[in-house]
Amino acid sequence: MSEFQAAPSYHLITCQVPKSMSLVMSMIFCLLLRDKEFISANRSILRAPWDTGLCFGENQFHDFDRMTQRLKIENLLGWRLTMVTREPADRFLSGFIDRCIRVGDDCYTCGNNMTCFLEAEYQRAEEYANTLKRNVKNLTRVDRHMFPQNWYVTFTLSVSEICRIVSTMGSIRENTSVS
Q1: What single Pfam family name could you report for this chain, choosing any that match (predicted)?
Q2: 128 and 81 in a common domain
Q3: What pLDDT digit, counting tens, does each position of 1-15 carry?
């Protein structure tokens, strides 16, 4: 379930977690990877849609070991491993509003019923966690937005920088039109 991005020239790797500034981090790593093209294409770190052209797939990896092999990283000394995390309740609310209300995903036939959705997602997470061979192919986009953040990176990798995002109720209201 992991997704990593690398900026080899800067010896920098990030583990991306959905609903935790993943798009912003993707754009930052694209800028670090191809700065001249990024600037000449008039790209924006904050206003870009999901990257489908400039850096798409070029510095993204779903497996840490394959990434180190492809980038020929023999030793992680001198590399910084980072991730951005978000306060879990804030991340859940943001994901629920985004997926089940704004986008209109059926959210396991729960629609905008938060209790129904939370119970369904909890059951899906529990089934995923209890499966010996975790089948990533069965995960939905909603699952990826909701499953626990620590499932995205193996913390034994010694993540050197963790940035935690905390929203205020005012910013939640402002960004979601919720009263």
Answers
A1: Sulfotransfer_2
A2: no
A3: 678 889 999 999 988
- Lookup: tokens for 96: 């629920």
- Give yes or no: residues 21 and 45 share one domain: yes
CB 153 within 8 A of CB 84: no
- How many domains, in total, are found in the chain? 2
81 contact partners, CB below 8 Å, separation of at least 6: 13, 14, 15, 157, 158, 159, 160, 161
pLDDT at position 17 is: 84
The verdict on 36 and 71 lying in the same domain is: yes
What the block records as the tokens of 97 is 């509003």
Angle at 105 between CA 97 and CA 50, to 5 degrees: 75
pTM: 0.74
Same domain? For 79 and 117 the reply is no
Per-residue pLDDT tens over the stretch 55-91: 877 788 888 888 889 999 988 888 888 888 888 898 8
DSSP lists the bridge partners of residue 5 as: 14, 60
Which tokens hold the place of 68? Answer: 């180190």
